[in-house]
Amino acid sequence: MSEMQTEGYLQRTPWLLFSFDDQSNFLSLNKAVSDLIGEPESALIGTSMASILTKAGQIFFQTHFFPIIKVEGRVDEVFLLLRKSGGEPLPVLAYGIRFEHNGSWVNECYCAPIPQRRKFEQELIQARKDAEDVLRQNKALNEAKQALEDNRAELDRRIQQLERANNELGQIAKVVLHDLREPIRKIAILTDFIRSNPEPFAEENRPMFDQINRICQSTSRLITGLRDFIALDTTAQAFAPVQLETLIRNAALEATETNLFATDTDWLLASHVPDVLGYAPQLHLLFYHLFDNAIRFRRTNVPLRVQLTAEVIKENKFVAVEETYQYTDHLRIRVRDNGKGFPSRYRSDVFLLLKRLDKTTPTLGLGLAICRKIMGNHYGTITADSQPGEGTTFTILLPLGT
Question: Looking at residue 262, what is its pLDDT?
């Protein structure tokens, strides 16, 4: 994906993206803002944020949202009421970051419209009332309970997807703002130097051309990786049965071949793993990256050992809806290696997009971010526990019967 294609992706996204200065005037916005607010970009650029906020939204923006982003440098999951050109309210969940650009402060916001929020809340309230009304009628009571449970489960999943999409959108925006612009800046500096040189193709300038070539190759790998990450968005296809044990063996073999890793002993010790429902290609990619990670970051002075265990446990199926519990079967898989490990304070950071703890390793830092996205597509979780020199354990929690 080229930089132009990436910019097009941000323009096509249904989430509202805009930036404003410390006087609350718009600096930039994407197409979704114009479409949902009902005003063209030319009419909004340079105007005050107040023009798209309700009266209550203006007060909250001045007393809470802007002071928080100004002091802390970011805001996360704040409810705002925007106003369409016709006066109708537009509720959104807002995330914001603050950074300095060309000597001025820029406040950038990512907003996800949640027009169905009130509808879901009303449906849940109504379902509870219905359940109380038919308390003595077992058949009707059971139907009401099931309807309520279905609504809660669907709401929980939608909230999970919304939170994950917003988090990923913020990470992708950071990549566009920094990781893709930095190579362009370096190339511009080198080409200006070469252009001003009286003999640009002299032998002593060869290292600069080599550097430009390395930057271009690195940027190309970054764009390809970002494209593959975006392409992992959940498809409309339904989950299908997956022979997970066979898939895991194949993923380990691919990781071995990709890394040209030869060993006389079986480095993977895996217990029986039951079949699951899911997206087989994505689950294969998940385990490939876990094994690839173990091979890349192994200790050279000891033979690599990776132990994979699986067990079915009871776990709460609700993740995003608070104070709601229903314990159902989950498959817990632990993948433990005896590699280099890393400080425990990075146990969450390792799943961030383009996060690399070991700068000497020629990787993009996409593998574990892809793993977390795949688990999100399966309504599951993945966590990491590690200590330097003691290896790393990845714990996967996958709902069964989904």
Answer: 79
Question: What is the distance between the alpha carbons of residues 261 and 255, in angstroms, rounded to a whole number?
Answer: 8
Nearest to 25 by CA among 96, 111, 110, 105: 105
Torsion region of 392: left, alpha or beta (phi above 0 gives left; psi -120 to 50 gives alpha): beta
Three-class HEC string of the chain:
CCHHHHHHHHHHCCCEEEEECCCCEEEEECHHHHHHHCCCHHHHCCCEHHHHECHHHHHHHHHHHHHHHHHHCEEEEEEEEEECCCCCEEEEEEEEEEEEECCEEEEEEEEEECCCHHHHHHHHHHHHHHHHHCCCCHHHHHHHHHHHHHHHHHHHHHHHHHHHHHHHHHHHHHHHHHHCHHHHHHHHHHHHHHHHCCCCCCHHHHHHHHHHHHHHHHHHHHHHHHHHHHCCCCCCCCCEEECHHHHHHHHHHHHHHHCCCCCCCCCEEECCCCCEEECHHHHHHHHHHHHHHHHHCCCCCCCCCEEEEEEEEEEECCCCCCCCCCEEEEEEEEEEECCCCCCHHHCCHHHCCCCCCCCCCCCCCCHHHHHHHHHHHCCCEEEEEECCCCCEEEEEEEECCC
Tell me the two tokens of residue 25.
Answer: 């005037």
**Degrees (nearest 5) of the Cα angle 192, 195, 196?**
90
Q: How far apart are CA 394 and CA 77, in angstroms?
A: 28
Alpha-carbon dihedral angle through residues 293, 286, 232, 153, given to the nearest 10 degrees: -130
What pLDDT shows up at residue 92? 87
List pLDDT tens digits, range 95-151: 999 999 988 999 999 998 887 666 655 665 676 676 666 555 666 556 656 666 666
Count of CB atoms situated within 10 Å of the CB of 144: 21
- Between CA 356 and CA 191 the distance in angstroms is 29
Cα separation, 303 vs 122, in Å, equals 59
Nearest one of 313, 227, 219 to 274, comparing CA atoms: 313
- Label the pairing between strands 381-386 and 276-278: unpaired
Q: What are phi and psi of 113, to 5 degrees?
A: -65, 135
Radius of gyration of the chain (CA): 25
Q: First vs last Cα of the chain: how many Å apart?
A: 33
